[in-house]
Specification:
Length: about 525
């Protein structure tokens, strides 16, 4: 007669036995929605069910995308926008921090606006708002991007001067009308008008705190100096003409620093939000507009930014915000807890996985799978409108885009120590080809050299030894801190990076003046 024995096993092991549990995927009816009114993304990893995304069943149309450099984020965004245009005739507006999308937008016949390279946005444009409402938005933006909140008197002086600038131009602060009694359109003031008003107050000598006035003037001058007055001239960008023309890229790479880029991003979000509010709901299917905010950490992280406000307002205005970042901690937890859908691509660092797991409450099984993702693979978390009895986080085999996803590989085995090999450390790191090209351009490499690097990968069956790759980048003038940043972003550990540079130095000393591209081809 047999004996019955009990054994302690982990939940993860039990979950792998499909006879005991349902697969961690939503039922097919939640995944296979009407293809004429949804966007195809890919097939689920376990049951290979086609997944068509629609915002109809989730809390709102807003989306988060997270994943390290080269994981396929921009590839996914391009696929998503392309299919939304086909299915719903959705317009798209990309707030492009590093100029990553501009070449693609040009190729697809879209419109590119390059701030810092001839285009201007007047920070005091109303975009259909009342002056009082726009003044509040401008002050809130300054509060996010500067330390003005620490100086109440400077904040008050700045706000009063903006009010006076509108009054001087003929506006009534509580009136939405932007025409004078003769029916002529009023021209909004600029920050240069605000600066003049502050300077006149200082010159009058009647204000009892001249130091506060001087500091207020200095603060405004950050945005009005010649050559940096990107927000202090009359706008060359007409918002109304940008929301219904298909695909638009607002290229911010020409602006001098993060503060200027964030100011542009916040202003555009504010204008877009007010425009959508004014238009309201319509009977058309799908979404009117998708707004992409990529790597805009300063905007996405602050809980009082318009990105958070838009996400919290939900689905009322028929437009969706797509927030993408390689670092999930750069995205406010308020966004993660309110977006309808989150796409999680390859994530390397444990602290990032901790943040995601705590924010989205997925299982340890999902966490383990996410940590092993290759390029284009992802997990999807959906916040359904009604309570469900199935997992709201599930796995996709791979994003299935409009063109093949091309991967490049860096081989690091040559720099691993015996201990690192025994520990099972990765010997190869992959990334998406176009993301590599875009990253190289941000480092200042001209297009011809970018194509040369890409062609070397192609000639070597898309694999390069990491040491040769580093030497090549240094020969093209890329500084080691930038190279280190890229290697970290694709997931290479600090200890391995140290070994890479040590071996690169040793190799360079023995190469002399030899052509590194020829050395690579000879390997």
């Amino acid at each position: 007669m047999g004996r019955l024995e009990t054994t302690a096993i982990f939940n993860r092991e039990l979950a792998s036995r499909n006879i005991f549990v349902s697969p961690p995927e939503p039922p097919a009816e939640f995944l296979m929605t009407d293809p004429g009114n949804s966007i195809f993304i890919g097939r689920t990893k376990i049951l290979h069910v086609p997944f068509h995304w629609t915002f109809k069943d989730v809390t709102n149309p807003h989306i988060c995308i997270v994943g390290i450099t080269g994981s396929g984020k921009s590839y996914f965004v391009k696929t998503f926008l392309t299919r939304a245009s086909f299915v719903w005739e959705t317009n798209a507006f990309i707030i492009d921090w590093a100029g990553e999308y501009k070449e693609w937008v040009k190729q697809t016949g879209g419109k590119v606006i390059s701030l810092g390279k001839g285009s201007y946005i007047n920070l005091l444009d109303l975009g259909g708002m009342k002056p009082n409402d726009r003044i509040k938005q401008v002050i809130r933006s300054l509060g996010i991007l500067t330390d003005i909140e620490r100086y109440p008197e400077q904040k008050r002086l700045t706000e009063q001067s903006i009010e006076q600038a509108y009054i001087d131009k003929g506006f009534k602060l509580s009136d939405q009308k932007q025409v004078n009694k003769a029916g002529k359109t009023l021209l909004p003031p600029t920050l240069k008008d605000v600066q003049r008003i502050l300077e006149e107050k200082l010159e009058a000598g009647t204000y009892e705190f001249p130091a506060e006035l001087e500091n207020s003037i200095y603060r405004v001058k950050q945005f009005t100096r010649e050559g940096e007055d990107f927000f202090a001239e009359q706008s060359t960008v007409k918002l109304d003409e940008l929301l219904n023309v298909g695909l638009v890229d607002l290229d911010l790479s020409g602006l001098p620093d993060e503060v200027f880029r964030a100011m542009a991003g916040l202003s555009m979000l504010q204008f877009l939000k007010e425009k959508m509010r004014a238009e309201g709901w319509s009977s058309q299917k799908g979404l009117k507009l998708l707004v992409v905010l990529d790597e805009a950490w300063k905007i996405a992280k602050e809980d009082n930014s318009d990105a958070v406000m838009i996400v919290r307002e939900g689905r009322k205005y028929q437009f969706g915000l797509i927030v993408a970042s390689q670092n999930p901690t750069d995205i406010s937890e308020a966004i993660f807890s309110n977006v309808g859908t989150t796409f999680i691509m390859r994530v390397k660092f444990e602290r990032f996985l901790d943040y995601l797991q705590n924010s989205l409450n997925f299982s340890d099984y999902m966490r383990d799978e996410i940590s092993k993702f290759g390029v284009g693979q992802c997990a999807v978390n959906m916040a359904f409108q009604t309570a469900t009895r199935f997992s709201e986080t599930f796995l996709l085999e791979k994003i299935e885009g409009e063109e093949p996803l091309q991967e490049y590989f860096l081989d690091v085995e040559s720099v691993l120590t015996p201990q690192e090999r025994r520990a099972g450390m990765a010997k190869t790191y992959s990334f998406e080809k176009n993301e590599l090209k875009n990253r190289l351009r941000t480092f200042g490499i001209e297009d011809q050299k970018v194509e040369e690097i890409a062609s070397l990968f192609q000639k070597k069956n898309r694999h390069l030894d990491v040491v040769s790759f580093v030497i090549l980048l240094e020969r093209y003038g890329i500084a080691r801190p930038n190279i280190t940043s890229f290697l970290k972003d694709i997931g290479i550990d600090d200890s391995v990076i140290i070994n890479i540079f040590s071996k690169a130095d040793f190799t360079i000393s023995g190469m002399g003046d030899r052509d590194i591209t020829q050395v690579i081809l000879e390997e």
